[in-house]
Structure formats: C-alpha cells, structure tokens
UniProtKB/TrEMBL annotation:
Keywords: Hydrolase. It comes from the Bacteria. It catalyses: Hydrolysis of terminal non-reducing alpha-L-rhamnose residues in alpha-L-rhamnosides. Its EC number is 3.2.1.40. Residues 433-775 form the Alpha-L-rhamnosidase six-hairpin glycosidase domain. It holds the Pfam family Bac_rhamnosid6H. Residues 146-316 form the Bacterial alpha-L-rhamnosidase N-terminal domain. Residues 327-428 form the Alpha-L-rhamnosidase concanavalin-like domain. GO terms for molecular function: hydrolase activity. This is alpha-L-rhamnosidase.
Length: 969
C-alpha cells in the first residue's frame, strides 16, 4: 500500500517553540511519499487547546493549494502564556489523503508589555559597588503551596545571566539574553520549570555579569556602551491544579551578593576563585542574613521581545589530541581543531592553587604558542582551587577562539598533562544543520569542513567577523558575502531574522547602515557593507520563501537605496563618501588594505544590485508603482555605469579581476560587452598563472562569475591551486578554519601583520556556494523561492573531480545531487522532495544514450519531458529518487584546455560556423585562425550556426592541423 505521510511540523522555523510573541505564527510541514511525482493538491490544518483535539480553536477546512511552508494561522486571537496544539493532513495529485500528522505545538509568551509586573533589580549601591568586577548573585525563596500543573519563568537581564532553581542550572542556553540593539530591542527567554519545582520551599538564583551590555566591546575597547548598571527582570507563573495561579517577581525583596566569579568578560576571560563559592546559595533555607539588599532600577520594558534567535549552546565536546612543551618551555594542549567555545577541566589540588589557561589559534615558526594576533583580548581563564577533592570548572560568561591552550599551574604538569581531564566545549547558536558537501578531492573536503567550522565559530548569536581578538562584531559586509553559503550549511531563518531586525533598528534616519550590527563602532555607509540591508532579506526570501520578513524589512531596504540615491552629484552613480572598496585585495598598493578596483566603480555596481533587489522585492510584495519607479532607476544606473566605466569597445576601465567579476555577477553588461568581460576575466586569471588577486568584494563571486561566463574549467583550476594565493594554500598549511588573509601564515612560516590577522574569518568561505551550486550542481529556480522548483546542473571539469555530492534539507525536504565519473560512464543520483519539481541537466549526454534506473527516458516514470541541447540533455521531473547513467564521451582527462573544449563542441556538431563558405552573409573576421584566443572568440560569436556533418568533419580536420600559438595560450 502506498504511503503519504506528513512530518517535520515547524512553527516559525522551529519544532515546538516555547515562548513566542508572534500573534499570527506560520506553520510549515514536509511530505513523505513512496510515489514519484507527488504534489500536494490540498491541505487542512487544525489548531486546538488540547492535544486530543477535543476542543478545536481553528480549522482551516480543506484548502486547495500546494502551499506547505509559512502557512499563517488565521484563527481567533491568541492569548499569552498558552500552548496551542496543531496538526496537518494533505491530499495529493494521486487522489490520496494522508492521515493526520502527529501533533506539534507552539506556546505563546507575553503578548503585551503590560503583562510585565516584575521590576528591574540590582544590588543596592550603598552596600555593593554596582560597577565592581565580580558577577552578582541574586536570590529569592518562595513557597509552593499546592499541587503544580505548570510553571513558566520569563526573564532577561542587562548584562548576561545564568539561572538556577533549587541548586540546579535552568536550561542549557548560554550568553542569554543575547546581543541586540538593547535600547530598542531586548530579548527575554521562556523556561518551563515545571519538573524542577517542588511542593514546599523553593529558591531561585540568578548570576549576572557584564556581557555585551556594559562590558568591553570592539577594538576601540569601549565600556558601558549601553549602560553602566547590571540588572535582572524575571517573572514566574505557577499554575495549580485547583485553577489558581501564583506569581513570583523580581522586586526589592530579593537578596544580593558576589561569589566565585571575580571577573568575567567576553574578550579577556574569567577569574574564578572556588574558595568564594557559596554552597547551596540557590537552594531554600540558605542563610543569606549577611547578603545585601536589592533596589529597583528604572529601565524600560517596552523594548522587550521574546527570544527570536536560536539559543547559544554547547553543541559538541572535543578532546585534546596531545599536550607538549614548546621550545619556550610552555606546556600546551592541542585541540586538533581551531574552535570557538571554552575549556572544561577537572583538577585535584591544594587550596589556593592557581591554574591559568591562555588560548591561541596557532603556533609560530619556532613552535611556540602565538598570541600576537589577539590585540587587547586576553583570552585567559584563571581558576583558584578550594582544595576539597576533585574540582570541575567551566567558564561562564566568556568564550575563546583557539586551537592551542597554554596551561600554567596545573599540578604535576611537568610530567605531562592528563588529557582525560580536559575537554573543549564548542559553542555557537544551536542552528539546525541543513547542508552537506563532499567530493573526490580530500583537500576540497577539508576546505568544506573549514567553511563549516568557520561558520559555527562566528555564528554565536550574531554573524561576527572573528571570534578571538578584541573585535567579534557583526560586520555587515562579511555577513552579506557569506549569506548563500551560510544558508546552505545551516538553517538561518531565526538567526538572520533577529539580526536583520537589529539592522533595521540601528539604521540611521537618513537610511545609512552602520558597518557593524549591533552598531557599537563609528563608520557608516560603505558599499557592499550597507548592502546587507537588501541582499540578506532577499536571499532569505529566495532560500526560505519568507515573504513576511521581506515585507518587514522593505522600508529598511528602500531607505538604503534612497540613501545612496542622495549621494554625490549624479543620482545614478555612487561616487562619493567612505568605502572599504575591495578590502584586503592582493592588487592593493603597498601598505594599503584596499584593492585596486576604483571605489566608485564598486559602489555603483552595488547601487545597481540593491536597486534590482528592491525592484524585485516590490514586485513580490505587489507594490506596482514602486516596481515601475525602481525599474526606471535601475535602467538609469546601468546606463550611467556603462557610460562612466565601460569604453565603447566594451572594455572595462578597471582592469582588475574584481571589476570583471562583479560586473558579470550583477548583470551590468549585455551582449558583446558581456562576452568580452567574461573572456577578459578568464584571461586575467590565466595571465596570473591561475591565481586570484581579489579581496572581500570580488572573491565570493569569482568562481561563480567564471562558470557563469562559460569558463568553468578555469574556475576549477583556480580552486585547485595549492600555492599562495588560493583557497587550498591555508589547507596545505594545516588550517582547520578559513583565514582572514590569503597569507595569514606566509610561505616561510612568518605571519601577516598582527594588526589584523584572524585565523577564523569566514568571508572567503563563501566559495562554498559555488561548490554546492556549480560543482555538485544543486541550486534552484530563483523565480520560485524555497526550492519549490529545483535545478540540478552539475558541471564537470577533467579529473579534478571524479565525484561530488551535495545534500540540502530544504523547507520542502531533502534535495540531493550526486554524480560520479569513470573512464566509461557518467552516473548521477538525484533526490527531489514531494511537492516540488526539478529541471536536471545531464552534461554532455545524448537522449539515445541515457538510462534512468536502467530504463530509457521514454519509459521512465515521472519524467515529464526531455530535450537535447548543446550542453547535454535537459530533463524535467517530479519528486522521487532518480539514477541516470550514460556514456562518458570525454573519458577522464585533465581539466580541458580551450583547444579540447572547442573540439568537444565540434564533436557534438554544435560548433562555430567559422568558414566563410558555411556562413553566407557573415563576414569572416580577418586572421580567424591566427591564435587560439581569436578562434575561441569566434566560437562564442557564431555558436548558433548549424554545420552539416561533412562540414564539421572538414573543420575538425583543419583545426587538428593548426599549430597553436603558445604565446597566446
């Protein structure tokens, strides 16, 4: 019997979200089917107050629609602090009806700020210096008088907090409440503490530290950016079985003290003196007679929002692979991986023993641990033992970026460190993993791992640039160039929803976008940085179909474009203001970080790109008048760009790799100028011996532009380059994350300047997007968001890759593109989720030669149509698993040269009509076979010609006799 199953129910991207304040939450689901070509034809959603659905709150009834993602709840108005159960069933195109899905639920938090009755509290300044370094301890005892049915705790802090109930930690979340634009938006969290409450006496405890709110921030070492007082706000609701409810609030009856955390800062680390531990301080009946009073602090509650982002948690634990003594005499642990998080260790030591851990990313040329790139960040943990047996310690309100840890003061370390007593806890936003990539080349597989580790390390509540030095800021430029890669690797909906709301909150009244979000440093308005305001919401819409977020950010997107429009003397060029340019490009002048591509060139390209996105967004949102307005604006920008920056011959005024890349990627040229730009980009790479010179602006799009322009083989050669500068140079140097500089470690083992040299800086990891979309061939039709219409189009290039595989968990389900080559055969395995369709290109295939699951295409189920073109065979399919196999007409040979590429096309009888007698009416260019490059130009120019079989044969024979001009190769 065939099956049609509904699973993976999500509400606002999450499974069973606890504590949301969205009044019309959206529901998504996935379909499992054992029949190919399954499409949803109708759905029904029920929402109830009980999990047996005896009391239906909303029934959508049967809705004829393929919609299965972000379906908005349309029932009665939701109530605060309630759990809502929901289930889904669907009908498909085979007249099948699914059973009801297993139920899921969401639970509301406080939907109105008037429901906050608690007060912000802090220790009384008369008794405890509120600017002292030790973390505060806050406690309150209360009595639970009756049988409990439910207990919810809602709360937040200015500073960071950890929460305890009856002596045990509440939840697994770290660095709560996260980092937002605090004055405008402060997240609060919801905890189900029902299992931890007991009938009778209970106690709540809060640990409160500086965090991002008032601690040291940025390379400018600012303090008290948002405020100079730590405070906590919590509200506990206890529901009893008799229908009554009790509320426990933060107020001036709480008591305060300090404890063992003497110092804790994001950048500098933590000092923990176990001798100051207050045993049982968060339990009932603790003697707090000598504790200090608390006072109410006048802080707003109108800026409170329920938790939006994935929580930050420990997501993995790794063990050190060795300990060793450096030439300088330091005892060092090697974690085997550049990671972000903290060290946990056990020790048995006399009272007062001081153990110091200092963290670093690399060793220097002599094998000593290297701290030079940390700036003013100490990255140091200090633990003072209490001497009462085996003690275990984990830092609380700090994190480090490191692979190596220098250990001082550990008992007996001169005989070697006991590795079993140390472990590294990996910390980041606990995003769902959604993407995988692997291939036949182990160096590329390591590169992919480096990309993923770089994202994990820098996606700690916001997209930071680096996790080790005194910076760790939400740089807009880094985030936007990496967004496509990021959303393949991990589910980024909640993560970027939260961050984009901060971008909108911190955007200046004139539309200018700060260079970092949250905006804690000076500097605004740079092209390719501020464009995060348009690029990121649009990309999220493309990947997830999130129209609501797009609508929410529309005013911000429009404000950014209008800000640019007002700059300079010409509203159609961006030729004024500060810009980073092609940051860290290798074609920069001596002692400069800015590449050679003119800043106004880059700025105008991104002006056009953001305008295009705004136009497309207006179209999606049905803003007809603004579609017209921004279509006209885009047309004028492109026109002015071509007038200003492109010669009549089609040559760009800027002869850099980056200039050619961004012009191609953002469609600033058409026709002959586009062909010339692609050709010249290819030549620039070849002339530089297949090395790049691009920086932050050009690198993310470099291989994409080459493949898009018809030079995929060059892109592959560029990727496979192992010598500096290249993506694989750091891999060969032992990197386990992405470096900030192409030569963060130089050939001789020395370092790039200490001023700015992160070994975990994800921006150049944006190459991942090309690996997934072009090498593995997994992409989508951008006109139909969220992978509703999938494109599978792998690109082959010689023996550099003999197999590749990408797996992506889309909003509709798993998408797989996997291919392998042998000398004789091509095999391609595809998986398409139900309720979607796909276009598949089988490169260099012929219809008569293709088998799908051992059947001819004409006999294969759920292949809707197929056709052959000069690239291969294009197949349209429905959902299901497909296995294609056909002859490898090219065999296995090194990456194709331009010559072999031409002959390959000729063999398929789709070649250029280059002989005068075969192209009546077309004037033969002079010296048509003078050089290889000239012939290739003609190949592109006359690619639509139809040669008869005998003319193809004659042409091949003539070409085979040509001696290639090596000077032009």
């Amino acid at each position: 019997m065939s099956k049609l199953i509904i699973d993976s129910l999500k509400c606002e991207y999450r499974e069973k979200p606890l504590g949301i304040d969205i009044k019309k939450p959206r529901i998504s689901w996935k379909i499992q089917s054992d029949i190919r070509g399954t499409m949803q034809k109708a759905y029904q959603i029920q929402v109830a107050m009980m999990d047996d659905f005896s009391e239906i709150l909303w029934d959508s009834q049967i809705v004829e629609s393929e919609e299965s993602i972000h379906v908005e709840y349309s029932g009665p108005e939701l109530v605060s602090r309630k759990r809502y159960f929901y289930r889904v069933r669907v009908w498909d195109n085979f007249e099948r009806k699914s059973s009801w899905s297993p139920f899921s639920w969401w639970e509301t938090a406080l939907l109105d700020s008037s429901e906050w009755k608690a007060s912000w509290i802090m220790p009384t300044p008369k008794e405890l210096d509120t600017n002292s370094e030790p973390a505060f301890l806050l406690r309150k005892e209360f009595n639970v008088k009756k049988e409990i049915i439910a207990a919810r705790l809602y709360g937040t802090g200015v500073g960071l907090y950890e929460l305890f109930l009856n002596g045990k930690r509440v939840g697994e979340d770290l660095f709560s409440p996260g980092w937002t634009s605090y004055h405008k938006r402060l997240q609060y969290q919801t905890y189900d503490i029902t299992p931890q409450l007991i009938e009778g006496e209970n106690a709540l405890g809060i640990v409160l530290a500086d965090g991002w709110y008032k601690g040291t921030l940025s390379f400018e070492n600012k303090r008290h950016v948002y405020g100079d007082k730590r405070a906590a706000l919590f509200q506990l609701f206890v529901a009893y079985s008799d229908g009554t409810e009790e509320v426990i609030l933060t107020d001036s009856t709480w008591k305060a003290s300090t404890g063992p955390i003497l110092y804790s800062e994001i950048y500098n680390g933590e000092i923990y003196d176990a001798r100051h531990e207050k045993e049982g301080w968060s339990k009932s009946r603790f003697d707090d007679t000598n504790w200090n009073e608390t006072v109410v602090l006048d802080l707003p509650i109108s800026n409170l929002v329920a938790q939006e982002n994935w929580p930050t948690r420990v997501t993995e634990v790794i063990k050190p692979i060795e300990s060793f003594v450096t030439p300088a005499g330091d005892t060092v642990l090697d974690m085997g991986q550049n990671m972000v998080g903290r060290m946990k260790f056990k020790v048995e030591a006399p009272e007062g023993t001081r153990i110091v851990l200092k963290h670093a990313e690399v060793l220097d040329i002599d094998g000593n641990i290297y701290f030079g790139n940390l700036g003013k960040a100490e990255q140091q943990i200090e633990y003072i033992a209490k001497g009462t047996g085996v003690e275990t310690y984990t830092p609380h309100f700090t994190y480090q970026g490191f692979r190596y840890v220098r250990v001082e003061g550990y008992p007996g370390q001169e005989k070697g460190l006991p590795l079993e007593n140390f472990e590294g806890e990996v910390i980041h936003s606990d995003m769902e993993s959604t993407g995988e990539f692997q291939c036949s080349n182990p160096l590329i597989n390591q590169l992919q791992q480096n990309i993923v580790w770089g994202q994990r390390g820098n996606f700690l509540d916001l997209p930071t640039d680096c996790p080790q030095r005194n910076e760790r800021l939400g740089w807009t430029g880094d985030a936007q160039v990496f967004i496509d890669t990021a959303l393949f690797n991990f589910q980024g909906g909640p993560f970027f929803t939260k961050w984009l709301r901060d971008l909108k909150a911190d955007q200046l009244p004139d539309g200018n976008v700060p260079i970092v979000i949250p905006a804690v440093v000076a500097g605004v308005g740079s092209a390719a940085w501020g464009d995060a305001a348009t690029i990121i919401p649009w990309t999220i819409y493309q990947k997830y179909g999130d129209k609501r977020l797009l609508a929410e950010q529309y005013d911000s997107m429009k404000a950014w474009v209008e800000y640019i429009r007002k700059q300079g003397k010409n509203e159609f060029l961006w030729d004024s203001g500060f810009h980073f340019g092609d940051w860290l490009a290798l074609d920069a002048k001596e002692n400069s970080f800015v590449g050679a591509t003119p800043k106004d060139f880059i700025a105008t390209v991104f002006y056009a790109y953001s305008t295009r996105i705004l136009r497309d967004t207006a179209e999606v949102l049905g803003k007809t008048e603004e579609v017209q307005e921004y279509s006209e604006l885009l047309e004028r920008i492109v026109e002015q760009f071509n007038y200003e920056f492109i010669a009549p011959s089609g040559r760009l005024v800027s002869p850099t790799q980056t200039a050619h890349v961004i012009v191609l990627m953002f469609d600033l040229v058409e026709g002959k100028a586009k062909e010339r730009t692609a050709f010249e980009l290819n030549e620039l790479i070849i002339q530089n011996n297949y090395h790049l010179t691009t920086g932050f602006v050009g690198t993310p799009y470099l291989c994409l532009a080459l493949s898009k322009g018809g030079y995929h083989e060059t892109a592959v050669k560029l990727l496979m380059q192992e010598k500096f500068p290249s993506w694989l140079y750091p891999v060969k140097k032992g990197a386990t994350t992405i470096w900030e500089h192409w030569d963060s470690i130089k050939e001789d083992g020395s370092f790039w300047s200490e001023q700015m040299n992160s070994f975990n800086h994800y921006a150049y990891g944006s190459i991942g997007n090309w690996l997934y979309t072009d090498v593995a061939g997994l992409s989508m039709d951008n006109a139909t968001p969220a992978f509703k219409r999938i494109r599978i189009q792998p690109k082959f290039a010689g023996t550099e890759f003999t197999h590749a595989k990408a797996v992506y968990e889309s909003m509709y389900g798993k998408v797989v593109s996997s291919w392998s080559l042998t000398q004789d055969d091509v095999e391609i395995n595809i998986e398409i989720p139900p309720n979607t369709t796909a276009e598949i290109l089988l490169p260099f295939a012929s219809i008569s030669d293709v088998l799908e699951s051992n059947l001819l295409l004409a006999d294969s189920q759920s292949i809707y149509n197929y056709k052959e073109n000069f690239e291969g065979v294009c197949v349209s399919v429905g959902s299901g698993r497909y296995h294609f196999k056909y002859k490898n007409i090219r065999g296995l040979k090194p990456t194709f040269t331009e010559e072999t590429r031409l002959i390959d096309l000729l063999d398929k009888k789709k070649a250029v009509e280059v002989l005068e007698e075969t192209a009546p009416g077309i004037t033969k260019p002079p010296g048509i076979f003078a050089t290889k490059t000239k012939m290739l130009k003609d190949l592109a120019e006359y690619s639509e010609a139809n040669l008869t079989s005998n003319k193809v044969t004659a042409l091949v024979e003539k070409l085979n006799k040509i001696e290639w001009d090596k000077e032009n190769s």
